[in-house]
Design a protein that fits this description.
Helix content: 55-70%
Shape: globular
Radius of gyration: 10 Å
Low-confidence stretches: none
Largest sheet: none
Order of helices and strands: HHH
Number of domains: 1
């Protein structure tokens, strides 16, 4: 399954789990790039500010 086929919520969850697990930085950046393409940056910054991804 390609990254573009993920629903927005699945993409965001994958991003947070990848960061939490300390996965490869290139992979995390790939996810973040797709998040930016979908204009979802506000959702990740809001969650990170609240500490919800920890």
């Amino acid at each position: 399954m390609g990254i573009r086929r993920l629903k927005d919520e699945q993409l965001l969850e994958t991003y947070f789990v990848a960061k939490e697990l300390g996965l490869n930085e290139d992979f995390v950046n790939l996810l973040k790039d797709e998040i930016c393409k979908r204009n979802l940056e506000q959702k990740i910054s809001t969650k990170e500010e609240k500490g919800e991804n920890q």
